[in-house]
Amino acid sequence: MAKIERSLGRKLRHKRVRRKVIGTALRPRLCVFRSLNHIYAQLIDDSEGRTLVSMSTLDPQRGKANGMAKTKKAEVVGTLLAEKALNRGIDCVVFDRGGYKYHGRVKALAEAAKQAGLKF
Which of 54, 79, 105, 115 is deepest in the core (most CB within 10 A)? Predict the structure, then answer.
């Protein structure tokens, strides 16, 4: 029962955040989803409703990092996402934490993307 309430609470928080955070072609939304073992991030243009860049811990470009901790994997995903975005000419984004606290893996991904050159 607690798991259902927890996931419902996250979805409600995400809806509340999404009312204010809108991505455009010039400044897309960096959306983060965190599962038990993996983390997914994508840059979304909400005006057209399409994903511009995506990266996750399951992506083959990430390389072999099976022995890493989940937070380290999130840092790698953030760095690679920022590199892909910069290659496509995207340097400013709006951060959508997906209803999660800005803590742990979500924070590691965001900080790594900032270090790699994305502006929030």
Answer: 105
User: Residue 35: its pLDDT value, please?
Assistant: 94
Query: What confidence tens digit (pLDDT) does each residue in 49-67 have?
Result: 999 999 999 988 776 667 7
Of 73, 113, 115, the residue nearest 93 (C-alpha):
113
User: What fold characterizes domain 2-115?
Assistant: Nucleotidyltransferase; domain 5 (3.30.420)
**Residue in this structure with the two tokens 């073992």, named with its chain if needed:** 37
% of residues, the chain, pLDDT over 70: 94
Q: What are the residue ranges spanned by the domains of the chain?
A: 2-115
Q: Is residue 2 over pLDDT 70?
A: no
Stretch 28-41: mean pLDDT: 95
Residue 119, strand partner residues: 92
Please tell me the total number of residues recorded for the chain in this structure.
120
Closest of 81, 94, 99 to residue 40, by C-alpha: 81
Q: Are 38 and 56 in contact, with CB atoms under 8 Å apart?
A: yes
Q: Going along 35-111, which residue ranges are E strands?
A: 39-45, 50-56, 94-96
Structure tokens belonging to residue 82: 């920022």
